[in-house]
Design goal:
The structure is a homodimer.
Chain A: H1 2-6, E1 23-28, H2 34-37, E2 39-43, E3 52-61, H3 64-71, E4 91-92, E5 98-104, E6 116-119, E7 130-134, E8 138-140, H4 150-153, H5 159-169, E9 178-181, H6 187-198, E10 202-207, H7 213-223, E11 227-230, H8 231-235, H9 237-247, E12 252-257, H10 262-270, E13 276-279, E14 288-290, H11 292-296, E15 301-304, H12 307-313, H13 315-330, E16 339-344, H14 350-365, E17 372-377
Parallel strand pairs in A: 9-10, 9-12, 10-11, 12-13, 13-15, 16-17
Antiparallel strand pairs in A: 1-2, 1-4, 3-5, 3-7, 3-17, 5-6, 6-8
Chain lengths: 378, 378
């Protein structure tokens, strides 16, 4: 215990590459377009006090909710504060991330220097190099870097957890049952394919029309997708009969939707009587449009899924799901979406750091074709 | 029992005005526009056989589902048959109605000449003067004509039952809670206002903009409506705050929708977090359009309600609800939508009968401002 509490932020510790010097964060002092309002902020982190740990960030993705938060259009937003010093109140961007414990203050149990953890809640502010946290802010990763990399750990708590819950909460699917989803090559979509396949569910996976469709279809099929179709195919009345034949003798009672617009209407049309359509995103920036007859005569039900609401209401359940997901990742049985790494290295100038981060934001905004943009610290 | 089984269709029976001569029905031999395909059919009804009763129709409404059935766009359709004779297979229109028993065949229990009944199921074909039925086709009305008129009985099984179930099935509303509905001056809407008020629920009732809004608002308020608003008011962003103030301190967790289009989107926006929107009609012939954020961040749920599905799955429950509703009607505690009577009288020619019925269909098609078109036999 003495060894733990003696550890201090900024002081080299046997075998642990500890931080010394200023900490850096990507912050914003007002809502707006990310490329316009995000800036680099330098601050000095005090040593971990009682009940605190000092953490060094290893990885943090750019998720859609993070961008919407910066834009001010997301219902949960961090407060602007001067806790990190500076001339004006700011918020640190980012919600998901993987950290390494580099210092442990007095009175902290269950976390040691060298442990790795992920954020337990949203709103921590993960686009930065270092932070002080409490044990309540973190969920310890029960595997080492060789089993679960920092990049993998940094994306497990949002997308795979969302897919896991959506496949479980709304319909009691049985092995052999189908589900259908839009945005199937997203992080959630890829997790749903893999988890669904593990549980014996067959999937019909809708992706946008693209020149490299065959390659993507092969990639998703390798993950466990039963069928991969384009939005154009889904919109084609003749093709609907093809889908009906796939499902014949089974049921298609669950749809997962992250787009909006025509493809959402079209997956709703495919649902079996009594089916449920769950919306967790609106990437097409179009509303969800459903003919009344689908509600009345086909008895379909529409719901939304927001991981934060569930996680806040069910912290123990979230930890249990994460434990299961970490195990799958460690055994190579759950692969995340491909990642584009935006790397911050020691010694980089502030301008370089901001430039690297803005590049990742630009790639996100331009649509990175199902690749996750991630800040990685080396 | 002898008196009952001796009763025969077409034979005058003490005190009962029995039918003698041909029976008449409004039929169609192909789907299409009602004014083009509906025609009058004359047939001879045989005497009630074993297990059968002969019924004389007293009233039968023109409901939206009836019209959609004729058009061929309703999922449940009667079979075309030659059971009523004639040169070609036909179907009798109409699903709801009130009858008087005018003959009872051998082996029928629980129904006597002079009893009145309503249809237990859809698809009976109620736009006619007489029919043979079985006890299983009918639900006996436990009140006399002075308590529950034939016109009242002829509309109780669809609209009030739909309102009753929608107010009960989706959300456990508590006294003081609000619900909101489009098409509030429809038959279902008026029943929901009255039943809701009985159960202590407050209602926000949306009606189309109209010159006589004040009179309609007064009428609905007299039925128990808490607030009556126009679609324009509902669409006004400033007015949304007025509605928020009405609901402040309570919850608005249930919306009932029979329109589609903007007013449906707007009632969905008004729902409290976790609210449910139930669609039972699409009178505006426009889809239901909802922004993804309402699903994700406000956790609203959309469902449909089709009375036929529920009634077929829960026949005992339907009979129990009808028993309660008949009691309310008999005590003057449930008033139906205003009725326009299309009257068939003895001795009318076929041309006159068809003309009267087509007039009612025209009034329905032109939009009869919340008035129910009903075939009444005198």
């Amino acid at each position: 215990m003495l060894a733990r509490t003696a550890a201090r932020f900024g002081r080299p510790l046997g075998g642990i590459r500890s931080y010394s010097g200023d900490a850096k964060a990507v912050v914003y002092s007002q809502h707006g377009r990310p490329l316009e309002v995000l800036k680099l902020h330098t601050y000095r982190l005090p040593a971990a006090g009682a009940g605190q740990v000092a953490v060094k960030f290893l990885s943090a993705p750019i998720n859609p909710a993070d961008i919407n938060q910066v834009e001010g259009v997301y219902p949960l937003r961090p407060a602007f504060t001067q806790a990190l010093g500076g001339d004006e109140p700011v918020a640190v961007g980012g919600n998901e991330g993987c950290v390494e414990i580099v210092g442990v203050g007095p009175g902290v149990d269950g976390l040691a220097v060298g442990d790795r953890a992920i954020m337990r809640h949203t709103l921590f502010g993960t686009w930065r190099t270092h932070a002080l946290a409490t044990a309540a802010d973190l969920i310890r990763i029960p595997y080492g870097p060789a089993e679960v990399s920092a990049v993998q750990a940094g994306t497990v708590s949002v997308n795979p957890t969302t897919a896991y819950q959506m496949l479980r909460e709304f319909v009691a699917l049985a092995p052999g049952d189908f589900f259908i989803q839009t945005g199937a090559n997203s992080g959630v979509g890829r997790a749903a394919i893999q988890l669904g396949a593990r549980w014996g569910f067959r999937s019909i996976n809708v992706v946008r029309d693209r020149p490299d469709f065959d390659a993507l279809a092969a990639e998703l099929t390798a993950l466990g997708a039963t069928h991969v179709v384009t939005e154009s195919q889904l919109a084609d009345k003749g093709f609907r009969n093809v889908i009906k034949q796939w499902v014949a003798g089974s049921k298609l009672r669950l749809g997962l939707n992250c787009t909006g617009g025509a493809s959402t209407t079209n997956i709703a049309r495919q649902l079996s009587e009594g089916g449920h359509l769950v919306t967790y995103g609106g990437m097409a920036r179009q509303p969800i449009t459903i003919p009344p007859s689908l509600f009345i005569f086909k008895d379909i039900h529409l719901h939304g899924y927001w991981l934060s609401r569930w996680a806040d209401a069910n912290p123990a359940a979230k930890e249990a799901v994460l434990g299961e997901l970490f195990g799958l990742v460690a055994r190579g049985e759950l692969r995340d979406v491909p990642v584009d790494r935006a790397v911050w290295r020691d010694g980089m100038s502030d301008a370089e750091r901001l430039d690297v981060f803005r590049g990742a934001v630009s790639a996100y905004i331009e649509g990175s074709k199902g690749r996750k943009q991630m800040l990685v610290h080396e």
